[in-house]
Design goal:
By secondary structure, this protein is mainly α. It has helices at about 5-25, 45-50, 65-70, 100-130; strands spanning about 35-40, 80.
Length: about 140
């Protein structure tokens, strides 16, 4: 599998996970105290590392005992974080705004279509290189 195709596969996996989380946000839009979540984007340093270049590490924040005592959760669902782009909290403590979630769902759909087109183009290029003409 080429690096481009592997990258497209990673991006599709990220987008499907993000779509699942946004769908959960929408489903819990009326649940008191529910905090909107999102998925952290793939780390570009991982892509560079898999290509054999120098590994760059991003700083990581580790939860201390004090943070856990205040309610920080660790290791619950890796990659899923509280949505940093929430701008309002309802009186019941819910931070899901349906308009924001639907905009994210539309962006996910557009990104998935773009990655799918890249994947298809790469497949067609490989078939041409192998002398097989698609119909």
């Amino acid at each position: 599998m080429t690096d481009l195709m592997a990258g497209a596969a990673r991006q599709m996996h990220f987008l499907s996970q993000r779509q699942r989380v946004v769908a959960q946000n929408i489903a819990n839009s009326e649940t008191p105290g529910f905090k909107a979540q999102d998925v952290t984007a793939p780390d570009f340093a991982d892509v560079l590392g898999s290509a054999g270049t120098t590994r760059i590490t991003a700083p990581r924040v580790a939860a201390t005992a004090g943070m856990v005592a205040l309610g920080a959760r660790t290791g619950v669902n890796p990659g899923v974080v509280t949505d940093p782009d929430t701008f309002e909290t309802k009186p019941d403590g819910n931070t899901v705004t349906l308009e924001d979630q639907l905009l994210k769902m539309g962006q996910i759909q557009a990104d998935f279509a773009a990655v799918t087109n890249i994947y298809r183009k790469q497949q067609a290029l490989l078939q041409t290189a192998l002398g097989k003409h698609g119909g």
